[in-house]
Amino acid sequence: MAGATFERLRRIALELPGAEQVSTWGTETVFQVGGKMFAVAAPDEPYATVKSTPAQQEALVARDPETYAVAPTTGRFGWVRVELSRIDPTALRDLVVAAWRAAAPRRLAAGYDTDPG
Question: Residue of 70, 87, 101, 114 with fewest CB within 10 Å of its CB?
């Protein structure tokens, strides 16, 4: 498995409409849309934390507990910790887009869903 990196996550996140990168909490980078976080990562850490639903989190952890884990602190809200070196870049993109869609204002998400590009 090729795995992903912080830079790949960063590229995916910032390609999404309205997404912003905010540095906070020391070395961590927060990716947000409309003021709502959808992913958190740090360039020097091997993992990222991504917004998900509790059901999605449960399914991911059950399917591949070496790649996915309940995120510390935010896990009770469904966030999932992802080991970047273990996740396929396409799966990472799908996860980040779903997280962005859950955090984005409805009109922005609807526009992305209908954009053919």
Answer: 114
Per-residue pLDDT of the chain (117 residues; tens, 9 = 90+): 568 999 999 999 999 999 999 977 677 899 999 999 999 999 999 999 999 999 999 999 999 999 999 998 888 888 999 999 999 999 999 999 999 999 999 888 888 865 544
Query: Starting at the edge strand that comes first in sequence, how are the strands of the sheet with 28-33 ordered?
Result: 19-24, 28-33, 36-41, 47-50, 80-83, 68-70
Q: DSSP string of 80-112?
A: EEEEGGGS-HHHHHHHHHHHHHHHS-HHHHHHH
Domains and CATH numbers, the chain: 6-107 (3.90.1150.30)
- Three-state DSSP at 18 gives coil
Copy the structure tokens of residue 11.
Answer: 């590229």
pTM: 0.90
- Which residue type is seen at 73? T
d(CA 103, CA 36): 6
